[in-house]
């Protein structure tokens, strides 16, 4: 199967960005770990980080043409703002898991609402970089289910 991992704005700064909130793991370490795990299991994993909403939208559109089977998505700040990204995911109807490094529910009230949670297969938050790995394990289990 083909999986796509999408990272929203400012996640390119992981490792140095508010490490008390987001941890010390870099985005490259996260992507490499996911790529390794997916390829060990015989799957293909693609990834993109963008600070631009339209880039993420266009990547989601392209995912349908590439027959991407599953998306793991940390929309970052767009979680709380983007009807356009929500609509893109509805348009391609590719199942996805929403991931956040931090526990958004114990942070500012504006982070408590997500435009994605009610259309996601599942949501993981507050577990740091492990959240991506756990999302991948769950996705692989679903994709490998007969
Ligand atoms: C985040 C949480 C968002 O509220 C924030 O805007 C981010 C990262 C997380 O991974 O914890 O940029 O999605």
Automatic annotation (TrEMBL):
<comment type="subunit">
    <text>Homododecamer.</text>
</comment>
<feature type="binding site">
    <location>
        <position position="87"/>
    </location>
    <ligand>
        <name>substrate</name>
    </ligand>
</feature>
<dbReference type="GO" id="GO:0003855">
    <property type="term" value="F:3-dehydroquinate dehydratase activity"/>
</dbReference>
<dbReference type="InterPro" id="IPR036441">
    <property type="entry name" value="DHquinase_II_sf"/>
</dbReference>
<dbReference type="InterPro" id="IPR001874">
    <property type="entry name" value="DHquinase_II"/>
</dbReference>
<feature type="binding site">
    <location>
        <begin position="101"/>
        <end position="102"/>
    </location>
    <ligand>
        <name>substrate</name>
    </ligand>
</feature>
<dbReference type="GO" id="GO:0009073">
    <property type="term" value="P:aromatic amino acid family biosynthetic process"/>
</dbReference>
<feature type="binding site">
    <location>
        <position position="80"/>
    </location>
    <ligand>
        <name>substrate</name>
    </ligand>
</feature>
<comment type="pathway">
    <text>Metabolic intermediate biosynthesis; chorismate biosynthesis; chorismate from D-erythrose 4-phosphate and phosphoenolpyruvate: step 3/7.</text>
</comment>
<keyword id="KW-0057">Aromatic amino acid biosynthesis</keyword>
<comment type="function">
    <text>Catalyzes a trans-dehydration via an enolate intermediate.</text>
</comment>
<dbReference type="Pfam" id="PF01220">
    <property type="entry name" value="DHquinase_II"/>
</dbReference>
<keyword id="KW-0456">Lyase</keyword>
<keyword id="KW-0028">Amino-acid biosynthesis</keyword>
<feature type="binding site">
    <location>
        <position position="74"/>
    </location>
    <ligand>
        <name>substrate</name>
    </ligand>
</feature>
<dbReference type="GO" id="GO:0009423">
    <property type="term" value="P:chorismate biosynthetic process"/>
</dbReference>
<feature type="binding site">
    <location>
        <position position="111"/>
    </location>
    <ligand>
        <name>substrate</name>
    </ligand>
</feature>
<protein>
    <recommendedName>
        <fullName>3-dehydroquinate dehydratase</fullName>
        <ecNumber>4.2.1.10</ecNumber>
    </recommendedName>
</protein>
<dbReference type="InterPro" id="IPR018509">
    <property type="entry name" value="DHquinase_II_CS"/>
</dbReference>
<feature type="active site" description="Proton donor">
    <location>
        <position position="100"/>
    </location>
</feature>
<dbReference type="GO" id="GO:0019631">
    <property type="term" value="P:quinate catabolic process"/>
</dbReference>
<dbReference type="GO" id="GO:0008652">
    <property type="term" value="P:amino acid biosynthetic process"/>
</dbReference>
<feature type="site" description="Transition state stabilizer">
    <location>
        <position position="17"/>
    </location>
</feature>
<feature type="active site" description="Proton acceptor">
    <location>
        <position position="22"/>
    </location>
</feature>
<comment type="similarity">
    <text>Belongs to the type-II 3-dehydroquinase family.</text>
</comment>
